[in-house]
């Protein structure tokens, strides 16, 4: 029996062999290792002053599509949207756990580097405008359509505290995390750097 048939029987998402989405800007493993080596290692700062409202989301990206809707369209295997860019049907593979979903409501748009992690890694010093750009960054591998409860389990954790359930995604996860931190000039903790190094070694 194929995965989708099993899923239909169980009424749950399947673990799918369909290729997972690949947001733009994911570096090679060697580039990511070079970028990671160049990141500043530092303890978190401003740990008690984070406020999600300081990272405005979701911006209008194109036409009537805001950032969430844009990513849902980009990462879908198939999708139908209405004139307001709301997905009325579709299919998505969550790269974090390999699950397939057919309802957009089962998906969150995850910030690869969580907003709170960015805050304590340097974004607390940014302008609100720069934080808005970060929160809506579709040019780098920062935004991913993923299973909602997996995203909620991740929360604001860094790779030393949380890793995707699907270990085969560790390499891409680490490469993407490092690319985002490198481009935006954010710091890493020593534990975070160690975890990322281990994950990059799976590439």
TrEMBL record:
Keywords: Signal. PANTHER family: AMP-DEPENDENT SYNTHETASE_LIGASE DOMAIN-CONTAINING PROTEIN-RELATED, SECRETED PROTEIN. It holds the Pfam family GmrSD_C. It comes from Coniochaeta pulveracea. The keyword Mitochondrion does not apply. This is GmrSD restriction endonucleases C-terminal domain-containing protein. Residues 102-198 form the GmrSD restriction endonucleases C-terminal domain. Residues 1-17 form the signal peptide. Transmembrane segments: none annotated. The keyword Signal applies.
């Amino acid at each position: 029996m194929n995965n989708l048939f099993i899923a239909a029987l169980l009424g749950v998402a399947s673990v799918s062999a369909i290729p997972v989405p690949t947001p733009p800007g994911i570096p090679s493993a060697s580039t990511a290792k070079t970028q990671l080596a160049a990141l500043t290692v530092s303890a978190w700062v401003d740990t008690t002053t984070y406020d999600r409202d300081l990272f405005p989301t979701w911006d209008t990206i194109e036409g009537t599509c805001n950032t969430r809707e844009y990513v849902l369209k980009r990462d879908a295997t198939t999708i139908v949207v209405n004139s307001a860019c709301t997905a009325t049907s579709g299919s998505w593979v969550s790269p974090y756990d390999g699950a397939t979903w057919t309802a957009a409501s089962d998906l969150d748009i995850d910030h690869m580097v969580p907003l709170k992690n960015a805050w304590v890694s340097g974004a607390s010093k940014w302008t609100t405008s720069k934080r808005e750009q970060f929160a809506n960054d579709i040019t780098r591998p920062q935004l991913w359509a993923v299973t909602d409860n997996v995203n909620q389990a991740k929360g604001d954790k860094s790779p030393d505290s949380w890793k995707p359930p699907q270990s085969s995604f560790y390499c891409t996860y680490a490469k993407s995390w490092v690319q985002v931190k490198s481009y935006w000039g954010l710091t890493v903790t020593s534990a975070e750097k160690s975890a990322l190094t281990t994950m990059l070694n799976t590439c």
